[in-house]
Amino acid sequence: MRSALLRSAALGSAPPELLTTAEMGRADRSTIDSGTPGIVLMENAGRAVAEAVMRRHPPGSRVVVLAGPGNNGGDGFVAARRLAAVGFRVTLLLAGAPERLKGDAAEAARRWTGPTRPATPEALAAARPHVIVDALFGAGLDRPVDGLPRALIGAVNAARADGAAVVAVDLPSGVNGTTGAVMGAAIEADESVTFFRAKPGHWLLPGRLRRGRLTIADIGIPDAVLATVQPRCILVGPELVRASLPVPSLAGHKYDRGHVVVVSGGGHTTGAARLAARAALRVGAGLVTLASPADAVAVNAAANVAVMVRQTDAAEGLATLLEDRRFNAVALGPGLGVGAATRDLVGSALAGCRAVVLDADALTSFVDDPEAFFTALRARPPGTTVLTPHDGEFSRLFDKLPEIHEASSKLDRVRAAARRTGAVVLLKGADTTIADLDGCAAINANAPAHLATAGAGDVLTGLVAGLLAQGLGAFTAAATAAWLHGEAARLVGPGLIAEDLSEVMPSLLARLIEPPAVAESAHDRVIR
Ligand SMILES: NC(=O)C1=CN([C@@H]2O[C@H](COP(=O)(O)OP(=O)(O)OC[C@H]3O[C@@H](n4cnc5c(N)ncnc54)[C@H](O)[C@@H]3O)[C@@H](O)[C@H]2O)[C@@H](O)CC1
Ligand SMILES: Nc1ncnc2c1ncn2[C@@H]1O[C@H](COP(=O)(O)OP(=O)(O)O)[C@@H](O)[C@H]1O
Ligand SMILES: [K+]
Asked: Its family (predicted)?
């Protein structure tokens, strides 16, 4: 299922694959080995950068190209030549000695016939640029910036604060393309022009906040190189969601669409589970039952119509309920409270092979003995468990593990957690990151900031459970749910409260699912 998702992702119009800087290096090399000279790729890259400048600024504008010592600088030399040729007033500032430029960058520098001046903060300020092309560092950034590069980054940001526009080549200098980390200091760009595919660092925070608009330019690297590179991370988008969403069959019945159990908290904390239950139903689960402790039955029954309510007393009650195999997905955590009773409920849910989503208190209840929890998770069938922590829950559970504590990015932390638990881990945030045991990963970045509101996470838990119940694998369900959740928040807009997310699901799903069978039957009636 997960590999089908990675394959289906390739069908969409916006390229979903995100390439680490190492993978991008392999894509470059593979293209060069197949006969396209590196200087051709560099010429195409520099032209794409020049075109980005031309799209928004008239000839005659003052442009500073800040070139670094590697191929990113080479792209800058090409952009400088093309902009000067059409009437931009270009100042080329090089950080480093011209004689140290190598290979394609040295060739690009030879093709530039204007003056090349040493890059200093003073020279940059004196040029009073309307536009700065940031070609200092790209994929080759391999250590924190210090000394002159750091001063130059500061000067670019100061010029931008004074009104200059900044177009970054590939990445804003200082941003790590693989991790999104700011390595000491980083340029703030209005636009970043990257090549062939976006990089995780364009979408992970804080890199995403530095890159401005993202333009992905075709520089002549064929898509076929992806078969060699085999990228391990995608950006979730509508094509992928459309390809994954279950479409009910005319011949089907509600049990074909799965039956979700959401475990409710006690009488005073039922809201979270109700939000999750409604979301599971809205995303298409055939039936949803709230497993409710005795003191919450009345309030749950009064507050629900389509969602059913069953009294289940503690872990034994849940285990008894789940003996009915038609309950094929269980969600628990929201509103349950932290402690032994919740740990026991989780134990009942994890027994057997139905799909399980664990969130909130179902995660926090294990912070004192995470190893026992990880062991129970690892014993489950692959692709059946999803954990949906926010940052705090993730840190409490995983940060003591050295491989997670020392990981260099959100992507690596989530991958390490998935490896450790065998579960699909979805770490929430503006750059929600999802990974499975094998290191397949997805970033979902469509959520607006107003999604950060009480109860939004409970709705996500329900969406994941609803999709699991309809037969999606854990990775696909988590990625699809995260995108639907973010898109629903965009549809509602500012003023969103968690209840709204489920209510816009029908109009959102209608845009994604073609209903050919319904259209046909309407037509039949007209003919009769
Ligand atoms: N043939 C190719 O590989 C292509 C590469 N392209 C460009 O090439 C770039 C990558 O080029 P490179 O691998 O040469 O890398 P960069 O140009 O990003 O930087 C490499 C240089 O910067 C130095 N450096 C790294 N971190 C530093 C720091 N913190 N302080 C001081 N110096 C530092 C390195 O020692 C090295 O000299 C891409 O970002 C892209 O812009 C494009 O031209 C497309 C084709
Ligand atoms: N800055 C942000 N931009 C976009 N989405 C965000 C941001 N911060 C949080 N979110 C999303 O909001 C939701 C909050 O969930 P959670 O923290 O579990 O809240 P709760 O426990 O109140 O339900 C998550 O889906 C998360 O990804
Ligand atoms: K750059």
From this structure: Belongs to the NnrE/AIBP family. In the N-terminal section; belongs to the NnrE/AIBP family.
**Site to substitute for ligand 2 among 451, 458, 499, most atoms within 8 A of C-beta:** 451
Q: What does the alpha-carbon distance between residue 274 and residue 378 come to, in Å, rounded to a whole number?
A: 29
Each residue's pLDDT tens digit, 236-266: 999 999 999 988 878 777 778 899 999 999 9
User: Start-end ranges of CATH 3.40.1190.20 in the chain?
Assistant: 254-509
Choose one of 425, 460, 485, 487 to mutate for the ligand 2 pocket test, by most ligand atoms within 8 angstroms of C-beta: 460
Q: Annotation-wise, does 473 bind a ligand?
A: no
Helix (H, G, I), strand (E, B) or coil at 17: strand
Element (H, E) at 498: helix 498-503
Q: Which residues of the chain form CATH 3.40.50.10260?
A: 2-15+24-231
Q: What is the pLDDT of residues 338-360, one digit of tens each?
A: 999 999 999 999 998 899 999 99
Q: Are 380 and 422 in contact (CB under 8 A)?
A: yes
Q: Does the CB atom of residue 501 touch ligand 2 within 6 A?
A: no
DSSP string covering 406-419? T-SSHHHHHHHHHH
CATH topology for 2-15+24-231 is Rossmann fold (3.40.50)
ipTM: 0.96
Whole-number Å distance between alpha carbons of 463 and 388: 11
Q: Give the closest residue (by CA) to ligand 1 atom 17.
A: 70
Indicate which atom in ligand 1 lies nearest the CA of residue 143: 29
Residue 335 in marked binding region: yes
Architecture of domain 254-509: 3-Layer(aba) Sandwich (3.40)
